[in-house]
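Page 37, continued from 36.
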């Protein structure tokens, strides 16, 4: 399995998601980033959730956030990718290849509210997305499962 972010097919977008979970507060923050086949950001967002039972529920909420956000932005051909084997076995990626979504998820606790960005990522994430774009694998080399 590659730890690089892989481009989706040129007709699709890829939505990466991750969750940060705080056991003590029973809260989680989901981070989502949607990118096109060139690796350009189409949207990103963070949602805070309360009364979350465990890390599994946090990852499930993050996956739901990812799918809903992509749908709400009007995307129909979407590759969904996260690092939770239980949530998405066939498209599982390690945290390194999902670093942008993970970074956004962690920011949720810091900013203290839910937000979304269109065609950009939060300012604290710009360096991460730029580094990720330079390490990406080109579309013809990518293996993707379309959701």
């Amino acid at each position: 399995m590659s730890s690089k972010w892989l481009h989706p097919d040129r007709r699709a977008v890829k939505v990466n998601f991750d969750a940060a979970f705080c056991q003590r507060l029973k809260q989680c923050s989901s981070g989502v980033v949607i990118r096109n086949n060139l690796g350009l950001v189409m949207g990103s967002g963070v949602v805070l959730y309360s009364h979350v039972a465990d890390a599994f529920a946090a990852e499930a909420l993050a996956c739901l956030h990812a799918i809903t956000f992509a749908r709400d932005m009007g995307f129909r051909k979407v590759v969904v990718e996260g690092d939770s084997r239980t949530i998405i076995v066939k498209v599982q990626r390690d945290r390194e290849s999902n670093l942008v979504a993970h970074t956004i998820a962690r920011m949720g606790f810091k900013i203290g509210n839910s937000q979304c960005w269109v065609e950009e990522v939060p300012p604290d994430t710009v360096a991460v997305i730029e580094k990720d774009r330079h390490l990406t694998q080109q579309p013809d080399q990518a293996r993707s499962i379309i959701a």
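The radius of gyration is 14 Å. Flag for discussion at group meeting. Residues 139-147 have pLDDT under 50 and may be disordered.
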